[in-house]
């Protein structure tokens, strides 16, 4: 990821945006620190999408055979 000073990013905004669209995010540095990242809209949408718990489970790479065996021992007695 390329870093560019804020003033240079302002002067070359078109170039910075073209780079982001090409899949190369650009970090904008101001006052000695990383302040922002320019990335393509498609990449931003992909990163900002929030999946539901069910979708995350369904997308997990583990299969049923990858799960540990269930412990069939008797449950301990509890009092309420």
UniProtKB/TrEMBL annotation:
Pfam family, one: PhdYeFM_antitox
Xref: InterPro entries: Antitoxin_Phd/YefM, YefM-like_sf
Transmembrane feature ranges: none
Coiled-coil stretches noted in the UniProt entry, renumbered to this chain: none
Similarity field: Belongs to the phD/YefM antitoxin family.
The protein's role, per its UniProt record: Antitoxin component of a type II toxin-antitoxin (TA) system.
NCBIfam families xrefs: phd_fam
Identification of the protein by name: Antitoxin
Organism: Bradyrhizobium rifense
């Amino acid at each position: 990821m390329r870093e560019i000073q804020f003033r240079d990013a302002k002067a070359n905004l078109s170039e910075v945006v073209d780079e982001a669209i090409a899949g190369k995010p650009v970090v904008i540095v101001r006052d000695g620190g990383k302040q922002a990242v320019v990335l393509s809209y498609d990449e931003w949408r992909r990163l900002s999408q929030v999946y539901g718990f069910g979708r995350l489970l369904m997308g997990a790479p583990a299969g049923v055979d990858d799960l540990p065996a269930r412990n069939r021992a008797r449950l301990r007695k509890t009092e309420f």
